[in-house]
Every structure is written in C-alpha cells, then in structure tokens.
Design goal:
The chain has one domain. 46% of the residues lie in helices and 6% in strands. Strands 1-2 form a two-stranded antiparallel sheet. It is globular.
Length: 68
C-alpha cells in the first residue's frame, strides 16, 4: 500500500510517512524516528505506523523559517 491510500480526513490530503518526511527534510529515516521520539515533530496519527498531517508539517516548516 502507498501513502496515497491513506487520506487525511480533515484536509483530504495524504498523510505523510516517515519516509516522506525524510525526503522532505533531506535526512535519513532514523533521524525522523529520533525527532519523533524527542517530540520535535507534531503529534503523529498511527495508521500502520506513525503518519503526519501535511498541514502540521507545513506549520512546522513556517515555524522553523521564522527562527532562521
């Protein structure tokens, strides 16, 4: 199954997997696991593993850019 099958009910956008986030942030999946464990990422939704709403990741990106 692909990420595209899991739609975010609220926004009708696909939920993002660990691999999707790794590509987005240009880091390895283990870094995503570490960020998740340390609370750096927004709260995950668990559907066959952790997944994140694109809107939450967009918000995180905006917050990171404001700090830069």
């Amino acid at each position: 199954m692909t990420t595209r099958l899991f739609l975010d009910v609220l926004g009708q956008r696909p939920l993002l997997t660990r691999k999707d986030l790794a590509r987005h942030f240009v880091v390895c999946v283990l870094t995503i696991d570490r960020w998740h464990a340390n609370g750096y990422l927004p709260k995950a939704i668990y559907v066959r593993g952790p997944r994140w709403r694109p809107d939450d990741i967009d918000r995180l990106d905006r917050k990171r850019k404001e700090k830069a």
